[in-house]
Amino acid sequence: MYGWIWRHLPGPLVVRLFTAIALIITIVAVLLFVVFPWLEPQLPFNDVSV
Amino acid sequence: MGSRQRQRTSALVVVVRTFGELMITLGIVVLLFVVYTLYVTDVIAAKKQDSINDELEQSWTGPVAEQPSQPKKQAKRPAKPQQGSGFARIYIPSFGTDFQFVIVEGVGSDELEVGPGHYPDTALPGQPGNVGIAGHRIGKGAPFNDLDKLNSCDAIVLETETDFFVYRVMPMPEEVADWNTVKRRDPRCARVPSLRQPNQPEGGPYSRTVGRRIVTPDRGDAVAPVPYRPDNPLPKAQQASLVTLTTCHPEYGNSERMIVHGALVNQVPKQQAGSYQTLLGMIGEPV
Q1: Which positions in chain A touch B259 (Cβ < 8 Å)?
Q2: Which of B22, B109, B220 lies nearest to residue A1, judging by beta carbons?
Q3: Is A13 on the interface with B (CB under 8 A)?
Q4: Predicted pLDDT at B4
Q5: Closest chain B residue to A30 measured between Cα atoms?
Q6: Whole-number mean pLDDT of chain B?
Q7: In this complex, which of B107, B117, B253 lies closest to A45 when CB atoms are compared?
């Protein structure tokens, strides 16, 4: 999977490297700012009131 | 034949390798989620807590500074705080002198993200009845992370615009029976009541109120004016002034709730105490 992505990134090595890093940052940002804030309230230890 | 064999092998290798890569990726994502829940939410909550603390500070100091010559207001009834607004502070000295949180009105997830939340319709600090406060045990600042470590007679201080109200954790279940003997171990226990009335059946209306209990999540009556008595057997004037802290239990679960009850032992006007640090000295807590 990662090999396949790497082979399909365009441009010389330096450009590919930057594209790869940008991809990783984008995915982490989507996780941190969209997916996790939605997922986290469903965790059981948020129920603290009676 | 040989080349077909190689093709099949390499297809299998691709499948296995991709599966492995996905699994490793999933593992990293799960780890990232753990870091988010335990630490990133703390940072977000701390920011919200900071800004509501500033708002509260302003609302307390603002009007007073404008009219310094006004005569002392006669015991004005505390207004019902607005949903989501900060209206008091909670301190628990045994969690460290820097333990302080602004209490917000409401116990929804939006309020609890900012700080410990006050159950609407429960008493306000200092009033007779029961001040109900819920707080997170894990993540989002985890104000009530250490409720399981509280001992009887540990102080829970509530600060309002005018006063410090010093509550102390009530006797634990195993201490209730001979509280009058047990309490002598510590001078701070002197005014902590067990609220038991030996001449009444089962010890009176507060027979189920102890320092710490684990209850099922449906026990909304833990924050009733007389805890665990939804029938409310006492008129307001006869109710003891209590504070009740609730959080999740077990630590990472939601099958139960941990409940801590404290009783009001002291009211110190802020004009007299000045700061929380001074108050700690006055009530015999290590500064």
Answers
A1: 50
A2: B22
A3: no
A4: 67
A5: B29
A6: 91
A7: B253
The 3-state DSSP composition of chain A as helix, strand, coil percent (nearest 5) reads 80, 0, 20
Amino acid at B126: G
Nearest CA in chain A to B220: A50
The interface predicted TM-score of the complex, written ipTM, equals: 0.91
CB B117 within 8 A of CB B106: yes
Q: Which residues of chain B approach chain A closer than 8 Å at the C-beta?
A: 17-18, 21-22, 29, 32-33, 36-37, 40-41, 107, 109, 112, 117, 119, 134-139, 144, 215, 217-220, 222-223, 246-248, 251-255, 257, 259
SS3 B200: coil
Is the whole-model pTM more than 0.80?
yes
List chain A domain ranges: 2-37
Q: Could you read off the pLDDT of B201-242 as tens digits, one per residue?
A: 888 999 999 999 999 999 999 999 999 999 989 999 999 999
pLDDT at B202: 84
Residue B180 contacts by C-beta under 8 Å, 6 or more apart in sequence? B194
